[in-house]
Amino acid sequence: MFGSSSILRRSGLAAATVALAGLTFAGCTTNTQNNSATPAQQRSEINSGADATLSKLYQASPQSRELVQRAKGVLVFPAVIGGGFIVAGEYGKGVLRVGGQPVSYYTTAGGSIGFQAGAQSRATVLLFMTDAALKKFRESNGWTVGADATVAVAKIGANGSIDSNTYQQSVVGFVMNNAGLMAGVSIDGSKITRDTGL
């Protein structure tokens, strides 16, 4: 009896954690997983979340604003949500902006094997710093980080300054969770596909 009640408690906790994942990432993201919303509502939610994500990025690293302004294209996923205890996966929707304007919408999906402490949420920003990198991305039918292009996750100093090597990369990434910018993370294996429904 002790074993079954313990399992039920763990199952309930896992379900509650997954259900609250979008809410706990407030301030950096919006819940873009609302599939019952119309395409126009989803686009509005994604764009609002992208604005909030970029604002938080600029607060964490003021130098990032210059990089964003220099980028030929800016892809923002406000909420990439993953969860699971043995086999984990992640999913999120985002917007590609060129010249500050939204031009198309994308989904990102990935998977990982290993212990995951419940649901986790993060925001991802990809900066295409060259016309060639942006063109290759936009012309792809499915673009995988690490396979189709190397994404240099920006190295941020204690004072929010960006490592000078970051400025030399053709695709630069920032990853944030509720606590701020994440260091030493890899987004290799994340597959990004255009969402033709939006």
From TrEMBL:
It holds the Pfam family Ysc84. Coiled coil: none annotated. It comes from the Bacteria. The keyword Lipoprotein applies. Keywords: Lipoprotein, Signal. The keyword Hydrolase does not apply. One of its GO terms (molecular function) is phosphatidylinositol binding. Residues 110-196 form the Ysc84 actin-binding domain. InterPro entries: SH3_domain_YSC84-like, Ysc84_actin-binding. Residues 1-26 form the signal peptide. This is Lipoprotein. It comes from Bordetella ansorpii.
